[in-house]
Amino acid sequence: MANHWLDAATATWEECHDFLKQHSCAILPLGATEQHGPHLPQNTDTVIAEALASRVAEQSVGLVLPTLSIGYSWVWRDYAGSLTFSFDTFRAVIKDIARSLDRNGCCAMMTITAHGANPQPLKYTARELADEIEMKILRVFYPNLSEIISDAESPTWLPMNFHAEEFETSVMLYLRPDLVRMDRAVREYPPRSIDYEMSALPMGALSKSGVFGDPTVATAEKGERWFNACVESIVNVWQEFLNRHLGMI
Ligand SMILES: [Zn+2]
Asked: Which of 42, 72, 82, 116 is deepest in the core (most CB within 10 A)?
């Protein structure tokens, strides 16, 4: 299948028009600008989301939208340089993007987030949009990750609660080694209080370094393997979703 993906930012409107007429689906990468410990850049989640979106599109189908590089990062609000939309602003931005696509005749959109706090506002935003517009929305946040990183050398802080540790650091060593300061990487497993996630106590108040796990054992080789496995798992979900809703691929 020729031209089964297109970069919305560099394409012309006529190219977008023709693409959506033929394929009618889009991929929105969702990142963040927030602290990632002493060794990773603030755009870690943005770099990973963007790379996942382009690789997934190459292996499946979709109009690749510009990456949203600010997300819902309330937990890091006291770290210099961390930016956050409020919960409602983030939801409003996602809704406006979805409404734009729906009006353009797009029938399905997948959001790929690489930032752990985006899925919560996204879940309820997608429910509200389901009652408002025709376009179907799929939200992915590292499907099957626990399985994919089961050969990791260090445990995650909590299941699916990881930050600037072995997984993220390995993927960054694979994608953008020039941005990783491995000489500054530290291991930290902050103590958990009994009321964690039952009160407003943020992750940001628990860690000294901003790390939740062990980045010191990260390697580019693991990063490449895990990144490719993540791409494969997202492609599988996307294809099944498109098959069910659009009967395509
Ligand atoms: Zn991250």
From this structure: 72
Q: What is the CATH number of the domain that holds 225?
A: 3.40.50.10310
Find the domain containing 219 and state its range: 5-246
Q: Is the pLDDT of residue 44 over 60?
A: yes
Work out whether the CA dihedral 224, 249, 243, 91 comes out positive or negative: positive
Phi first, then psi: what are they for 177, rounded to 5°?
Answer: -60, -25
Type and span of the H or E element at 148: helix 145-148
Cβ atoms of 156 and 213 closer than 8 Å: yes
| Angular region, 126: left φ>0, alpha ψ -120 to 50, beta rest | alpha
Q: Give the pLDDT mean for 109-125.
A: 94
What's the 29 CA to ligand 1 centre distance in angstroms? 14
Can you tell me the distance from the alpha carbon of 191 to that of 137, in angstroms, rounded to the nearest whole number? 37
- Residue 194 CA to ligand 1 center (angstroms) comes to 24
Residues 54-67 pLDDT 10s: 999 999 999 999 99
* Cα 180 to middle of ligand 1, angstroms: 13
CA of 19 to the centre of ligand 1 (A): 32
Token digits for 18? 């023709």
Vertex 29 angle, CA 224 and 135, to 5° = 130
Closest among 197, 209, 204 to 82, alpha carbons compared: 204
The reported pLDDT for the residue numbered 197 is 83
Report how far ligand 1's centroid is from the alpha carbon of 200 (Å).
20
Neighbours of ion ligand 1 (CB under 5 A): 44-45, 168
